[in-house]
Inverse folding.
């Protein structure tokens, strides 16, 4: 058999671990060959591909961040218009099944392809951890570790300068990174997209800290956080060419507002793509590898329209439909746990 794979959407640590596991499992267990398409769906449409061999080069990519295949984004309309090209490119290359590694957008594309007769298995990735069918996506643990390390460092400088330091982390629609990094790093307030915030509450929490003798504060803000209506001026971002929301620097805006309202010395740090780069944590390497092994086996067995997913301790195969029906947001009880520690 001949399998194909591609990585699509924003990169994340662990993509190479999945590719390695697919190639090694396909070769070791079944003698199957694997072809990799470059730059996600775009490379598949343009037939840019390379054979991936179970050799020393593939073996060593386990530790490497990013993706050796490159990644890209494609507007859903352009993708759908390319169905016949995609089908004929796969056929010309003798591909029996495709393994698409990506986040919610990629998995929607994978489902659409499978619905249109292309055998596809999905592998959920994103640092945001917002894919519904799985308990965790790989990349999330690495992003949380990076953000937690940053918060640890901010504590000492904030304390030395009697400052409030804001750290803005990624999280377009969901606050998983902010919630976990904020909790692990002992942030004194965390703001997530799922729960619109009132800056007056943040100021109150900081004032309480200072009244109790503390002289600094750390606030962890997800980039997609929004104020409660009528509480603060904030212009929402536009949409980019792929239909994704863009951001207007909510961390800086909250920082400016706190400074104006309280007079405290405030600075903002935006972590940005640092959270997505670099080597994956051990947890993400293991999760990504387990996904890759299961995806290769499922593709070889001739399954389609399925997605590998972590359920408790086990890797399961779920319907792609379940992975893309809605985003996995932070449940309110998880945020309330964090709130118990604010101030
Ligand atoms: O979806 C993953 C993610 O890292 C989001 O957290 C973030 O908003 C977005 O990608 C950034 O995308 P780009 O790399 O295109 O700026």
């Amino acid at each position: 058999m001949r399998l194909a794979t591609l990585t699509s959407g924003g990169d994340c640590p662990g993509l190479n671990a999945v590719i390695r596991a697919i190639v090694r499992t396909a070769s070791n267990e079944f003698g199957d060959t694997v072809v990799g398409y470059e730059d996600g769906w775009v490379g598949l449409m343009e037939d840019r591909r390379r054979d991936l061999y179970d050799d020393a080069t593939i073996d060593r990519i386990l530790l490497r961040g990013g993706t050796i295949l490159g990644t890209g984004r494609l507007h859903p309309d352009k993708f759908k218009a390319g169905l016949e090209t995609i089908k004929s490119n796969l056929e010309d290359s003798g591909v029996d099944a495709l393994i698409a590694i990506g986040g919610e957008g990629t998995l929607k594309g994978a489902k659409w392809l499978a619905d249109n007769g292309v055998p596809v298995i999905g592998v959920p990735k994103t640092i945001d951890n917002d894919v519904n069918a799985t308990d965790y996506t790989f990349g999330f643990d690495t992003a949380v570790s990076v953000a937690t390390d940053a918060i640890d460092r901010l504590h000492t400088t904030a304390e030395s300068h009697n400052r409030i330091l804001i750290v803005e982390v990624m999280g377009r629609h969901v606050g998983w990174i902010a919630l976990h990094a904020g909790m692990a790093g002992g942030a004194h307030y965390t703001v997530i997209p799922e729960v619109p915030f009132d800056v007056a509450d943040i100021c109150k929490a900081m004032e309480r800290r200072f009244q109790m003798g503390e002289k600094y504060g750390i606030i962890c803000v997800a980039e997609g956080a929004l104020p409660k209506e009528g509480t603060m001026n904030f212009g929402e971002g536009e949409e980019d060419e792929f239909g994704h929301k863009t951001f207007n620097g909510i961390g800086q805006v909250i920082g400016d507002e706190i400074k104006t309202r309280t007079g405290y010395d405030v600075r903002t740090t935006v972590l940005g793509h640092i959270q997505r780069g670099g080597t994956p944590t051990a947890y993400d390497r293991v999760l990504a590898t387990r996904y890759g092994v299961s995806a290769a086996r499922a593709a070889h067995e001739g399954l389609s329209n399925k997605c590998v997913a972590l359920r408790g301790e086990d890797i399961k195969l779920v319907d792609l439909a379940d992975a893309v029906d809605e985003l996995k947001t932070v449940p309110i009880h998880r945020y309330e746990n964090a709130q118990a520690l604010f101030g």
Summary: The chain has a mean pLDDT of 96. The first helix runs from residue 15 to 30. The domain at 2-139+280-324 is CATH 3.40.50.450 (Rossmann fold). The chain has two domains: 2-139+280-324, 141-276.
